[in-house]
Hints:
- The chain is α+β, with helices and mostly antiparallel strands.
- It has three domains: 2-86, Uridine Diphospho-n-acetylenolpyruvylglucosamine Reductase, domain 2 (2-Layer Sandwich); 89-213, Uridine Diphospho-n-acetylenolpyruvylglucosamine Reductase, domain 3, CATH 3.30.465.10; 217-299, UDP-N-acetylenolpyruvoylglucosamine reductase, C-terminal domain (Uridine Diphospho-n-acetylenolpyruvylglucosamine Reductase, domain 1, Alpha-Beta Complex), CATH 3.90.78.10.
- It is 29% helix and 26% strand.
- It has eight helices and 19 strands.
- It has helices at residues 2-11, 44-57, 106-115, 131-137, 178-181, 198-215, 235-241, 270-288; strands spanning 17-22, 34-39, 61-64, 70-72, 77-83, 91-94, 97-101, 118-119, 140-141, 144-145, 150-156, 162-165, 185-192, 194-195, 222-225, 248-249, 252-254, 261-264, 297-299.
- Helix 1 runs antiparallel to helix 2.
- It is globular and about 55 Å long.
- Residues 28, 62-70, 84, 102, 127-130, 132-134, 136-137, 139-141, 185-186, 216, 218, 222-224, 297 line the site of flavin-adenine dinucleotide.
Amino acid sequence: xxxxxxxxxxxxxxxxxxxxxxxxxxxSFRIGGPADIMVKPSDVKQLKALCAACRDTGTPYxxxxxxxxxLVSDAGIEGVVILxxxxxxxxxxxxxxxxxxAGALLSQIGNTALRxxxxxxxxxxxxxxxxxxxxxxxxxAYGGEMKDVLLGVTAMDESGNIREYEPxxxxxxxxSSRFAKEGLIVLEARLQLQKGNxxxxxxxxxxxxxxxxxxxxxxxxxxxxxxxxxxxxxxxKLIMDAGLRGFSVGGAAVSEKHCGFVVNxxxxxxxxxxxxxxxxxERVNKQFGVVLEPEVKIIGxx
Length: 302
Ligand SMILES: Cc1cc2nc3c(=O)[nH]c(=O)nc-3n(C[C@H](O)[C@H](O)[C@H](O)COP(=O)(O)OP(=O)(O)OC[C@H]3O[C@@H](n4cnc5c(N)ncnc54)[C@H](O)[C@@H]3O)c2cc1C
């Protein structure tokens, strides 16, 4: 670790480096042990140099955005966590196109769209992630998905090559993308929106936020939908029908409000969540013959 530490110090200022950083402070689940080192690069040059330093020293690295779709192990994350968030979040607007860096929050992009009377991004405003995380997952809600608005995504491969991917190259499917499959780092994306009416955009965003508050357990930490939607049904409904509403392991519980969410009721560990997920999957499979696949990304030391 000494070698990578020295290299990181040459790349970013001391104030952007965090040692033994508790990941529970950087995840919406409020769960996760420490990352050996967490770094917040502020531009592509720093990010590229950090990845190269990790590669050269054989240090594993993990990219994180707002941590709203991850379950980090209690034993933390080995190596370097590279956080692309507020430090990497410039947004600019040209005509109907918004270009934003990966760390921009979807809500911030939504606010920018509203200020410029640009419609088409309302669906994403309540998703608590970054643009980078949303491209990786092809995030979607209320009938919209990133696929509908992405005009171009600039990403870096493992060798440090950077290029823009056009929509037909992105392989965007249900909660999947080429960026995830190939381990690409999303740097920036261009979003194609349409001129709209600011009042209507605001009203639509407000309506969707109200629907979220009504249906989802936003008052408790979670990572959103725990399982992907199985073909032809809803994970939450299967879990509810299996009699698992409120079912808990330690501090982790199937939400009483929405069975598709596992929530942290206070002091849940990653082990609690994993055991709960396992038990829920087993019971749903036994009763309905449906295999539930995690939507939340499970990361960190085994
Ligand atoms: C209350 C709640 C509601 C939610 N509702 C929805 C919803 O309606 N629809 C939906 O789709 N999702 C939803 N989510 C899940 C989550 O917000 C989205 O998947 C979001 O897009 C994740 O973004 P993030 O920045 O938090 O990613 P993170 O959780 O930080 O990372 C997720 C994955 O993406 C990778 N990653 C992140 N940034 C980059 C990057 N720049 N380059 C390469 N890899 C990267 C990480 O390595 C990780 O594997 C919800 C979550 C919560 C907590």
